[in-house]
């Protein structure tokens, strides 16, 4: 986590920071990124292996990421890797490679 993040306020300034916060409990996560399938909306979430949303990117104009706090603030869906919007993050290297594309798409 970097100096800009405030975990006690549930604010993580970059995807890498929220990933680092969650990786001890969830060594393997999935990234759901709507821009990978050409959606007209932006939805980025980190998922548990079971498909539960763990963290989400804050909606524009807010910046950063936040952990999921309440059950009803998002919808858990079954992962469908063949749909193309989910990427398995089995290592920190995989995660960093996936997160690098965010700067280009935002």
Helix and strand arrangement:
Elements (H helix, E strand, L loop, with lengths): L14 H8 L6 E5 L10 E4 L5 E5 L7 E3 L18 E4 L2 H9 L1 H4 L1
Structure description:
The structure is a single chain. By secondary structure, the chain is α+β, with helices and mostly antiparallel strands. The protein has one domain (7-105). Helix content is 20%, strand content 20%. It is built from three helices and five strands; from the N terminus they run H-E-E-E-E-E-H-H. The chain has a five-stranded antiparallel β-sheet with strand order 4-3-2-1-5, covered by helices on one side. Strand 2 and strand 3 (53-57) form a beta hairpin. The radius of gyration is 13 Å and the shape is globular. The two termini are 21 Å apart. The mean pLDDT is 84.
Keywords:
106 residues, alpha+beta, five-stranded antiparallel β-sheet, 3 helices, 5 strands, 20% helix, globular
Terminal Cα span: 21 Å
Helix content: 10-25%
> How many individual helices?
3
Domain module count: 1
Task: Describe, in short, the structure shown.
By secondary structure, the protein is α+β, with helices and mostly antiparallel strands.
């Amino acid at each position: 986590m970097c100096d800009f993040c405030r975990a006690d306020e549930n604010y993580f300034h970059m995807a890498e920071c929220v990933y680092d916060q969650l990786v001890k409990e969830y060594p393997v996560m999935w990234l759901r990124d709507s821009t990978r399938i050409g959606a007209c909306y932006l939805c980025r979430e980190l998922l548990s292996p079971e498909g539960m949303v763990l963290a989400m990117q804050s909606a524009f104009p807010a910046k950063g990421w936040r952990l999921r706090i309440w059950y009803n603030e998002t919808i858990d869906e079954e992962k469908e890797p063949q749909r193309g919007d989910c990427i398995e993050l089995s290592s920190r290297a995989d995660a960093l490679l996936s997160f690098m594309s965010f700067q280009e798409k935002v």
